């Protein structure tokens, strides 16, 4: 096959064009890839910021919860005990020495009870640093708070008490999730029986909370997205790559199952 | 005429390099200015020898390709050195390839015939090293700022030039022997490649200056 000069020129021009296009495409590809990389990095940074701000919010909420418990404990328990002590002491009549012993001993008992309650409160105040002592203990304290209310029959299976591995950020979020679930039960469920299970299987932390309350329409609550803080629960679980499953029917109680990779 | 245009392009690149790299004391910047000055001098002498005195200038370009291979290899080394600790090993490949083929060619046909095989093979090796650079750049975790990354544009210029010159290298002897009338097209191809190479390099010097200003303003 014989080529003419013109054909050869056309071939050379075309070939040169193609040989220049190849590096051009490579540069365009690198440019596009670089832009995508920048975008990904930006997204990652934003996610990190969002996580940190949510964590801070969670921390504040846990603190608020602790302060609320302290306030109500001071008012309902210690305040009452001290008022009763004051009343007992003021009723002492020095002219009735036979009653003196009894009243003083009653006052001592009341003061001792107040001291015991105060110690309990001091422990609770430590709740802000609770995640440092371990999630199992933090959950126990939360359940103790619930027990104190005295309205509920509570069944607990807490396998995290002696668990030594921890994940501070996740612990704080799990504790707040439990607080939110318990608050929802107290506020809305009208339950008489609560069952709480916490355990770890295959590096997955399982938190199961069951109640025998009036239940609710989960799908409707999810779409309305208000009142019981479902969106905040979902957001926090998503942040730590967890899963949540809520089973609830009107007048048939609620089962909340949370699964979180742990630690 | 084409040769004159070529010299003007190279001279423009040299002037830009002097202006934009004057405050950059890195070895690469010093070598760049030196190399571009050599390019302009050799091209002017080569042009005068060939057009003015009708003399064989192949020996002159045989000397020039030593500078070319050394400068491009060092430039690639400087770029790769920021991405990998094997830069020296990678960039020793073009040096070794060049030295071996250069000696073989000189031994085979003497110094008065241009060492085309050396430059052809070197082009392929340079293209491969450029691709390695881009591969490592993509693999990097952090994105780069293309507006200030002088090295990226410098390597891009090298890739365009040596990849594009493959056509020139493939066709030159075939055309010279069988289609002498069509040979001129290759001269234009080379002119376009030179224009591309030096334009991209000029942009890289501008990026270098921007990079330095950014660095200074961040202190």
Record keyword descriptors for this entry.
heterodimer, A: 263 residues, alpha+beta, Heat Shock Protein 90, 2 domains, five-stranded mixed β-sheet, 7 helices, B: 219 residues, mainly alpha, 82% helix, Histidine kinase N-terminal 7TM region domain-containing protein (chain B), transmembrane helix (chain B), transmembrane (chain B), membrane (chain B)
Range of helix content of chain A: 55-70%
Termini Cα gap of chain B = 49 Å
Tally of DSSP helical segments of chain B: 7
Helix fraction of chain B, binned, reads: over 70%
Quaternary structure classification? heterodimer
Cα separation of the termini of chain A:
73 Å
* Assigned CATH class of the largest domain in chain A: Alpha Beta
Count all strands of chain B and give the number: 0
Report the order of strands and helices of chain A. HHHHEHEEHHEE
Quote the average pLDDT of chain B.
Answer: 90
How many separate helices of chain A? 7
Instruction: Provide the succession of SSEs of chain B.
Output: HHHHHHH
CATH topology of the largest domain in chain A: Heat Shock Protein 90
State the secondary-structure class of chain A.
alpha+beta
Number of strands of chain A: 5
Radius of gyration of chain A from the CA trace? Answer: 32 Å
Would you tell me the overall average pLDDT of chain A?
83
Gyration radius of chain B, rounded:
18 Å
**β-strand amount of chain A:** 5-15%
CATH architecture of the largest domain in chain A: 2-Layer Sandwich
